[in-house]
Design a protein that fits this description.
By secondary structure, the chain is mostly helical. The protein folds into 2 domains: about 10-95, no CATH class; about 100-135, no CATH class. It has helices at about 10-20, 25-75, 85-95, 100-115, 120-135. Helix 2 packs antiparallel against helix 3 and helix 4 packs antiparallel against helix 5. It is elongated and about 80 Å long. The two termini are about 35 Å apart.
Length: about 140
Amino acid sequence: MTHPITPPPELVQQWANASPVGIMDESWAYEMFIAHHAAQWGADQQLKLDAEQIEKAYQAGADQELEACCAWVSKYLPYLGDFPMPEDKLRAARRRPGPSSLKERALHELADVYNRDEIDDSAYDAIRLALEALPDD
């Protein structure tokens, strides 16, 4: 059974190809190089998963609080004729941004790769410009 944070074989091969010249002569050094990259990749994957779960829990709590406030407002503030209900005004005033677009997430991921020095400047700029040219949907 494969662990959910096991790096794909193609990625392990990429790390093997990136190992410094001569490191393969010392099997322990080669194995440590691969193990280091695998551990870093696994930690990065877990951090992304944790961040997503924290974001969902935070959003659920914020939504629950907003609904409790709207219920209180509708109970204790009178309806004002043709104006929107007070809870509708509260929801509109506290509107949260929607989820990031695919383009925004791709730009964020690209910046992470660039900051880890896994891509050179010209490749980063070319990909970034292409992503920025895409619509935000």
